[in-house]
Amino acid sequence: MSETGNRLRKLLESPNFDPQTYVKQLSQQSDGDRDLQEHRQKIQNLADETAQNLKKNVYKNYRQFIETAKEISYLESEMYQLSHILTEQKSIMESITQALLSTDKDETSKEMQAAFPKETEEVKQRALTSLLEKVEGAKNIMDIPGRHLVYNGDLFEFDVDNMSPIQKVHAFLMNDCLLIATWLPNRRGTVKYKYSDLYDLESFAVVNVKDNPPMKDMFKILMFPDSRIFQAENSKVKKEWLEILDETKKNKVSKDRHKKEEEAPTSPIRSEVSTNPFDLEDEDPADAEESAELGIEWIQELPEDLDVCIAQRDFEGAVDLLDKLNEYLKDQPSTQKVKELRSKVDERVRQLTEVLVFELSPDRSLRGGPKATRRAVSQLIRLGQSTKACELFLKNRAAAVQTAIRQLRIEGATLLYIHKLCNIFFTSLLETAKEFEMDFAGNTGCYSAFVVWSRSAMKMFVDAFSKQVFDSKESLSTAAECVKVAKEHCQQLTEIGLDLTFMLQSLLVKDIRAALQSQKDIIIEATKHRNSEEMWRRMNLMTPEALAKLMEEMHSCGISFQQYTGDGCWVNLSYTMVAFTKQMMSFLEEGLKLYFPELHMVLLESLREIILVAVQHVDYSLRCEQDPEKKSFILQNVTFLHDTVLPVVERRFEESVGKPAKQLQDLRKSTRQVRVNPDSTTSLV
């Protein structure tokens, strides 16, 4: 750039540059229109140079843009995995916190009992009665004998979905239930609250909610499938609620267990009155054994532990508990108590199954790939739901493949798009197959479902493939390259024992047949058009380079062309015959790339019809031509077609297909008749 251009660039790049002032000074200093035009040209040259430099920088950094995008994609995947790990760590930390709270609660309870004497049942019942008088609609709460107040206080209830405040409530914790009452806006006398809900202590689980300012001092009560969130006044009150709720629930379980143990010895008293001498031996030990079987603490707390595992998404822990219970009850008699326990557990199994089914639903994130479904699938299989797990796994992967294909950008170049499409589809299919084999290794009955799914997935792929390749009327050469790419990717599946080549061929055969017939019609029409203008003159290529190029093209097709070249740049063949040979050999090569056994006769008949057009043309020309010199030239073209072109077509077809082309051999015999008896009046059909 000149010194003037550099000064102009520095002036325009200066931070204090003012366009209006610059234009005003330039107008004052210029002598006329010519100076302004020259200055305008300088600025335009500078703008063009800047744009060119910008383009060069974009091209130079284009690879860096691509690499950066890939790194961002990898980082996104790692962040997703990290989020999953943090969620699991959070669940573990909450479990540890609950355990520590339980330990502190036991120590606090012992200290409280040592510091304060235990209140009598009558005092507690009177306190509960006096409080319930303030609750509208709670008159029947005291109908249960032995029910007394343990703890009460004000709480704020929040919406579970959006964490917005709903209302202020007052909770009454009793020794066997929890009463929730809402505040009355218009108080009437001593009545302050209105009865809302009453929950049995065995029907819900209490879960601590981690503080997330401004949402803090909260805990959740789970009554599957519903849940409610409450906020305490401060962290101290929240801790008291958690400790006392847990202590009360354990006291109730312990009390129920002791009650059952005390009821067991009562049956011998009745047996003494009975006249049956076998009552003592048959009935009493069974009842005592039943109480001993189900009186273990972990069995009593099992339904609640399952609720907590489901709430914390500890699916493995929940299934481990179920396996432990089934192993314990495997050799036990089917008593009434066992049936009741199984009924409670079956409800939790149903809830756990629903959560696992939701984990595998296509509505969930599909970014984790097939491995992201392994956790839910393995637990469903352990629950005996292998068929459902197989169905949901395959639906999830079908949605992932469909989403990936839909998000693929349609490029201008069809072959580039097909490369990307095949890479995405067959890689996903291969990963899905490997994951399926790993997850369902012991369930051979599910493999047939995978084969059916593979066919539907292949149909989805072929729909997208055909829409881009065949519906857009691409050339036969492009279609052949695209089909070749799809075949090569399909062969990769054989490394895991999955061969879908036949399925791919059967789905593509209709479109390929139509493409071959369409290209055949185009070649026939073009040949007929050239035949109508045939002058039977030698071909002059004008330059040695053009002749060398033609000879190279013929050599690549397997045709010996040296003997048909003349002096200089002349070729001893007509333009029509040369153009026909190039077009037909190209059709042959592209057709062989697309060849399936189902397309054998289609390709063979197409070649026969194309060759027949040329044979009929030379036959007609020989019968009509009167000039001996031109007739000799026509015979030379017939010799080229019979001795050089057709043998190459037959040999190339047989080498690729493995079968002789009988129809083409018969057609060559007819050209021999034309060459031997050029004056025959018999027309070729």
From TrEMBL:
<keyword id="KW-0813">Transport</keyword>
<dbReference type="Pfam" id="PF16528">
    <property type="entry name" value="Exo84_C"/>
</dbReference>
<dbReference type="GO" id="GO:0000145">
    <property type="term" value="C:exocyst"/>
</dbReference>
<dbReference type="InterPro" id="IPR042561">
    <property type="entry name" value="Exo84_C_1"/>
</dbReference>
<feature type="domain" description="PH">
    <location>
        <begin position="148"/>
        <end position="250"/>
    </location>
</feature>
<dbReference type="InterPro" id="IPR001849">
    <property type="entry name" value="PH_domain"/>
</dbReference>
<keyword id="KW-0963">Cytoplasm</keyword>
<dbReference type="InterPro" id="IPR032403">
    <property type="entry name" value="Exo84_C"/>
</dbReference>
<dbReference type="InterPro" id="IPR033961">
    <property type="entry name" value="Exo84"/>
</dbReference>
<protein>
    <recommendedName>
        <fullName>Exocyst complex component 8</fullName>
    </recommendedName>
</protein>
<feature type="compositionally biased region" description="Polar residues">
    <location>
        <begin position="268"/>
        <end position="277"/>
    </location>
</feature>
<dbReference type="Pfam" id="PF08700">
    <property type="entry name" value="VPS51_Exo84_N"/>
</dbReference>
<feature type="region of interest" description="Disordered">
    <location>
        <begin position="252"/>
        <end position="285"/>
    </location>
</feature>
<comment type="function">
    <text>Component of the exocyst complex involved in the docking of exocytic vesicles with fusion sites on the plasma membrane.</text>
</comment>
<keyword id="KW-0966">Cell projection</keyword>
<dbReference type="GO" id="GO:0015031">
    <property type="term" value="P:protein transport"/>
</dbReference>
<dbReference type="InterPro" id="IPR016159">
    <property type="entry name" value="Cullin_repeat-like_dom_sf"/>
</dbReference>
<dbReference type="InterPro" id="IPR011993">
    <property type="entry name" value="PH-like_dom_sf"/>
</dbReference>
<dbReference type="GO" id="GO:0048471">
    <property type="term" value="C:perinuclear region of cytoplasm"/>
</dbReference>
<dbReference type="GO" id="GO:0030426">
    <property type="term" value="C:growth cone"/>
</dbReference>
<comment type="similarity">
    <text>Belongs to the EXO84 family.</text>
</comment>
<keyword id="KW-0268">Exocytosis</keyword>
<dbReference type="InterPro" id="IPR042560">
    <property type="entry name" value="Exo84_C_2"/>
</dbReference>
<dbReference type="Pfam" id="PF25345">
    <property type="entry name" value="PH_EXO84"/>
</dbReference>
<keyword id="KW-0653">Protein transport</keyword>
<dbReference type="GO" id="GO:0006887">
    <property type="term" value="P:exocytosis"/>
</dbReference>
<feature type="compositionally biased region" description="Basic and acidic residues">
    <location>
        <begin position="252"/>
        <end position="263"/>
    </location>
</feature>
